[in-house]
């Protein structure tokens, strides 16, 4: 019953933010990433309300310093290498396939602000603090080194990015092609939360991954445009 309640609250959060986003776009005529920056505090507040509603304590939701040693170990030895590798792989994507990804072209300032500062806080509170924290309080079990809660919350994290397709920031082809990398990233983020019991370190990793990927996309597309202009 608690799982169903969690899913209902998660869907409510998604629809509420979507509706607020649509109203904001029409009233103030601002686009996706600029809008995401301005809506970030609202999303965080909603997530905190969900955490309170589901009955999680601050500790269960990861609002603690946690195991500092394990946290920084996950950042330095798993998160940072993954961020560097994923950013580097951007430069191996064929030019024609880059057209499927709309990031790194317009509103670059707002893309960078959101990717380097806000995305980790916004998404980790909801997916690690709320979803994984709730699942941790409900289910046991492991698969290899990952808990069942880490695995399930990672799958939810991947599927929720269908919203990028609905907002026309990605095509279905791009979304499907990024499922493996997003799942790996989600497992790393979930594992960081799992071993540290704090969202601090998963926030750092998340910002590193998205920030480096966004930066790599921008500089790759800029280099391609420069060649065409030359």
Automatic annotation (TrEMBL):
Recorded GO MF terms: endopeptidase activity
Keyword flag Membrane: yes
Keyword list, A-Z: Membrane, Transmembrane, Transmembrane helix
All residue ranges annotated as the CAAX prenyl protease 2/Lysostaphin resistance protein A-like domain in the record: 110-211
Keyword Transmembrane: yes
Signal peptide, first to last residue: none
InterPro entries: Rce1/LyrA-like_dom
GO annotation, biological process: CAAX-box protein maturation
Transmembrane parts of this sequence: 37-59, 71-91, 112-131, 143-167
Annotated protein name in UniProt: CAAX prenyl protease 2/Lysostaphin resistance protein A-like domain-containing protein
Annotated source species: Proteiniborus ethanoligenes
